[in-house]
Here is the input.
Amino acid sequence: MKQFLKNYQKLISIFLVIGMLFARCNLGLALNKGCVLANLFFDGLAFLYCVHLFLRDNKTFKKAVLNPAIGWIIFFSAIVMTYGHFRIRYGADYYSRMFTVLTVVPAILLLILFYYNKEELLDILSISGSVVIITTLITSLCYDYVWGEWLLGMYSRVGATPAGGVIDTGNLVLILLIPILYQLIVLKKVKKYLWITLIGIFEIVATGAKSSVLPIVFVFAIMIVGASDDKRVIRRNLIILVIAAAVAFTAIMVVPPLYGVVGYRIAEMFTGVSSEEFDLHTSTGQRMAQIAAFKEHFFEYPFFGHGFYAFKEMPYSAVEEFRQGTEISYRNVQLHMNFLELLFSYGIFGLAAYYWFPIYILIKTFKANKKAMIIVFSIMISFVFMDLGIDMYYKYLLPYYSYFLAYYMATNFRKADNR
Here is the structure.
């Protein structure tokens, strides 16, 4: 049995990564008990396998769990748990220890798997990412009724799954595409990964999520620059990328189906930001109203915040428009931006407790080899946009999975190991 587990370590790791990502990022935890059981099942299998890895090689296991990454997630999660459980100040009452545990545990298990699969890590991430991109599409087709509107010629944003909305799906697919794009662009494995890249890009565009549509251009640029040391080749490829981006942008703004899904949101973003009045009929107008309220009330408790998701509990957060029959009403919403949500909930203390780790990773990355730099910078630029578009620190595995991957790449792929 031990020999079997050793011989098939790569396949087992792929299965576990797929299982944990599918359960947490496609099924989620909120739909029903079956989804929770699916998460427990795959997390339990991964835990048992990690116990086996520990018994086989405890030296690597210690490196995987005794490091700044684990310290960060435990310390920050303890802050969230303290604020949420004890409802400090104006904190919301929907904090769930289950969400915290089933976010922290799979993230740690995934990091352990990274440490035991250095040589095979890129293939594991690319294969598992390809499968999860497909399962995300299938899950959404089964769950999101809006896909049916496309058959009627009504093009709206699609891609919701039991684990989250269209924005969450777009963000997930973008992160899963990063190792795949490295294989495609840098390692030139076109036949193997072009098909899944096209499917992933389709899913991102279909979600209409600006937080994933916009950064993918920067990810392509990073990959192109890292793919060659020849300046002429890099210049040529960047010119091609700029032309392709211009053509894609024109298509998004001109072709009716594309404009109906994502183009109008880009146009709305520019008009909404420059407007002196907040148009609460639009997403951008609502965001601007939220930012204005944040500016007005943040300094009431600037250092330690107002409490767990306290903004949603305030009367001035009722800015999201919704229709009840023929009447239009407004409901309270969170800030929909990770930076501001952390500041409002936990103050400067909470913001520093969360973001010191990504900054630490970036510093470490400058001593890493080219492969690590390309992947880490792609992850980080993506999260700049994602964190501007949605609050991700509590409900989602994606930021912890991504930062743990970036940390592992930055600290274990040094310049001396330039493969």
Observations:
- The two ends are 32 Å apart (CA to CA).
- The CA atoms of residues 217 and 239 lie 13 Å apart.
